[in-house]
Every structure is written in C-alpha cells, then in structure tokens.
Amino acid sequence: MLADRRDAVVRSLEVHDRPGLQALFDAASPEDLYTRFFGVGRAPIRKHLDHLFSGDRSVVTYVVTTEERTVGVADVELLPDGKSAEIAFMVADDMHGCGVATLLLERAARDARGAASSGSSPMCCRPTT
C-alpha cells in the first residue's frame, strides 16, 4: 500500500512490463532523467530498457504497479565482487512522496536477506520470461 492508501503491487519484472516501463521513462522529467542516468536527454532510455529485458543474470528488476500503470522501477545490479550490488530507482513524477521507492527498496532488501540466509547468491530473483 502506498502512503496515500492506494493499493500497489511490488513484483519482479515480467516480459509484458516493457510498455509500462517505456511510458514511465517517457513521462519522466528532464531532472529525474538526469539524476537517474547522470546525463542530459532521453538517449539512455532505450539502451537501459534493453539491458533490463536482456536476461542478464547480474540484474534483478522490480516494478511497482497500480491499477492504472507502472509507477516505479528498481534495478539491482550485482557488482563484480559477486557479494554486493547497487540499486537505482525511477519513480513517476506524480508519485514522488508516496512511498514507491521505499516499497521497492524493502522488496529488494527482503529478497537479499532471504538469499543470504539460504546461502545462495544475493541475486536470487530473476526477471520472468
């Protein structure tokens, strides 16, 4: 549930999520794109989406959806040491302050804790194809 009491679902990325993610990035403000990609413009979006949907086993992606649309995404990238990862978020401009990134971080942390306690890789969840 979001901070404004709307229902939301947090789940792993699925193949059919690409149009929703494309819409999320297309609607993002230039400022949000700059802070997400550390650059100006929309050129990185397609390459990033291709990466998320490539099946690369070093990335785990989560989405938050409401009844209407995809409102957030987090991608967790395994670092070369194989023991740590970095996470990046994109939240719809009109959803800032609603707890979307918090839900995404909580899900990633829960999965990482579960992987650690089972002795498996910290990247235990993969995109569903």
CATH-assigned homologous superfamily: Gcn5-related N-acetyltransferase (GNAT)
- What CATH architecture label applies? 3-Layer(aba) Sandwich
Task: Give the beta-strand count.
Answer: 4
What helical percentage do the residues reach? 25-40%
Distance between the termini: 26 Å
Write out the strand line-up for the largest beta sheet, numbering strands in chain order.
1-2-3-4
- The SSE order reads EHHHEEEH
Number of helices: 4
User: Radius of gyration from the CA trace?
Assistant: 14 Å
Average pLDDT value? 87
Shape: globular
CATH topology assignment:
Aminopeptidase
Largest sheet: 4 strands, antiparallel
Number of domains: 1
- Overall structural class, as computed from helix and strand content, comes to alpha+beta
Task: Report the β-strand fraction as a percent range.
Answer: 15-25%
CATH top level is Alpha Beta
Low-pLDDT sequence parts: 120-129
